[in-house]
Every structure is written in C-alpha cells, then in structure tokens.
Amino acid sequence: MQIILRQDVEKVGLRGEVVDVARGYARNFLIPRGLAEPASPARVAEIEKRASQRARQEASTFDQARELAATLERTELRFDVKAGPTGSLFGSVTPTDLADELWKVAKVRVDRRKIDLAEPIKKVGRYEVPVELFTDVTATVRTLVVPEGGELPEVSDTEAADVTSSAEPLEAEVSDTGSEEPAAEEIAPEA
Fold first, then answer.
1. How many whole angstroms separate alpha carbon 173 and alpha carbon 162?
2. Which of 38, 51, 65, 138 would give a disulfide with 133, using CB separation of 3.0 to 4.6 Å?
C-alpha cells in the first residue's frame, strides 16, 4: 500500500515521502497514529509540485546568495574606535556592529548570528570576517578597526599573502610558544 508520511518514521522514510508499506502496518499503526495518510493520485501530484517549486526557489536563492557574496567580498568596513596606547579598544566591535555597518555601507541585511566571529574584536587591526549567507555560500568581509584620529600602518605584500580567512588581526605575529605578540606598528598608532 502506498502512503504519504506526515512525520519521519524510523526505517520507513522521511516526512513528505511517498512510500510502500504493508497494508496492515499502514491501517493498524501509521494511519491511526497520524504518522501517515493514504496516497491518492491527486495528493501525490500535489507533493511533487511542491517539491519542484521548493527546488526552483532554493536554486534562485543560492544564485542570489552568490551575487551577494561577490558584493560583500568587495566591501571594506571601517570602524573608528577609542583605543589605548597598546591598541586595545575601550569596548569592542561585535557581530551586531558588523551587521549594522554592512547595512550602512553596502545596503545588505545580514543576520548577526550568521557572522562567524568567535569573540568580539578588542584590538586595533585588519580583520577578515566570514559571513555565512546560505548553505555552502560564505563571504569574507575585510574589516579595519582604527583608533580615532589615527591610521593603521600599511600591510606589506608578504603579510597580505599569509592572511587566512579568520577574525584574527593581520599584523599580529605568532611566536613559537603560540602566544600573540603585538607588532611594533600595532603598539604605537600614528597620530
């Protein structure tokens, strides 16, 4: 007997699938418990139509997300913040701040939960922050955190080539012990 599952049933199938089961199993267990309904030709056609519409919508959404990712890759965010002489911020730059700035600069709405920032940015520097736009579509947004009234030192080509996609400052140097030591340019911001 063919049935349409209303819920996931272990070892039978997933919600919305049309499956073949024994007539007694369907009539005595699945249908009375509301786990399934008999499959009529009209109902099966309706489910197939919904599945094709969902597939088309996901494809168009995926293409839109890729276009949006290209826009975000070209975007550079700049935050002028109050910072101490060592480059530590008085406060922090959070995913909410990044989402708000993306809207101001690029007119792109991004959910703050989709911004992959393990912890708020608390030091002056250059950052690359990953933003998940859709399943398998992630954009990296260049972010500058600059002390008020100052500028960041220029990054050499070799430093720029060594950058990975993470929310780590670009001019931080890592020693053999694994601890970060601020670079000389990071300690004394230009006034």
1. 11
2. 65
Q: Is the pLDDT of residue 100 over 70?
A: yes
Q: What is the mean pLDDT of residues 91-102?
A: 91
Spatial separation of the C-alpha atoms in residues 191 and 150, rounded to whole Å:
5
Contact status, residue 83 vs residue 189, Cβ threshold 8 Å: yes
DSSP bridge partners of 126: 144
> What pLDDT was estimated at residue 155?
54
* Cα separation values, 93 from 59, 62, 119, 129, 135, Å: 34, 29, 9, 12, 26
| Residue 85 zone, left/alpha/beta (φ > 0; ψ -120 to 50; rest) | alpha
Q: What is the pLDDT of residue 177?
A: 44
Q: Say what the pLDDT of residue 59 is.
A: 72
Residue 87 near residue 151, CB atoms below 8 Å:
no
